[in-house]
Amino acid sequence: MQVYPWYATTEGDEIEQGDFFEACPVYIPSAEATGHGIVDFEWEERDLVVLSQTCDLVKGREKVSEVLLCSVWNRSELTTGHLSTPKGLEDARRGNLPGFHLLASCELPGIKRELRVVDFRRVYSLPVQFLRRKALFDQPRLRLLPPYREHLSQAFARFFMRVGLPVDIRLD
Amino acid sequence: MSSPEEVKREGSQPPSEQAAASDSDELLDWDARLEEAPPRPSGKIKVRLRYRGRGLPIPVDVTNGDSPKT
Prior knowledge:
The structure holds 2 protein chains of 2 kinds. Helix content of chain A is 18%, strand content 37%. By secondary structure, chain A is α+β, with helices and mostly antiparallel strands. In chain A, strands 2-3-4-8-5 form a 5-stranded antiparallel sheet. Chain A has a two-stranded antiparallel ribbon with strand order 1-9. In chain A, strands 6-7 form a two-stranded antiparallel ribbon. The longest helix of chain A has 13 residues, at 148-160. Chain B is flat, with a radius of gyration of 26 Å. In chain B, 30% of the residues lie in helices and 11% in strands. The two termini of chain B are 27 Å apart. Chains A and B meet through β2, β3 and β8 of A and β1 of B. β3 (37-50) of chain A pairs antiparallel with β1 of chain B, so a sheet runs across the interface.
């Protein structure tokens, strides 16, 4: 029987869609940080997964200067709300909560991770060179493998391209 | 382009299938969201902003195999 592993480990500073950057700082400017001078920025630690296309991130031939990333939460961190319940996780697994995407646990030696939830409403961008540098410190790193990577990407696209109709169609 | 027969087939979905599609659509909760992010280490830093002019787009190198289709 063919085995389709969810994850692999990687080293070096090549970045692909589906790569994880754990305990990565994201920076949020304060509302006043719109001009010059000294301003406050908040930073928050996040586990992130890369959503930018791999072909845009080829080293030396980058087609983007910032990488698009999404927050990833451990199941144990979700202690309130629908996602803290088995029903909520099942809804996420079935794709009934388009703002979220469920990732399987990881059992690779030395890199064990519990079930995780990607939060499509919390997206960030970080400079490519910043992430390449961080990648060199985070070794080995975790990488989501095909077809789970494409499944994640498709789920994000589906959520992002949603269209709400102002007036629905009456059938009577 | 669909032939008239194909169009007719698509439009004449049995009532049971229409109901199933409708039910599954009702299951989607597009508005579900985490009100508050789970607590993680955080902090505040002071940043000095220096204006360096507008950013420029990354030039497209068509001779290097770059194309919009990637």
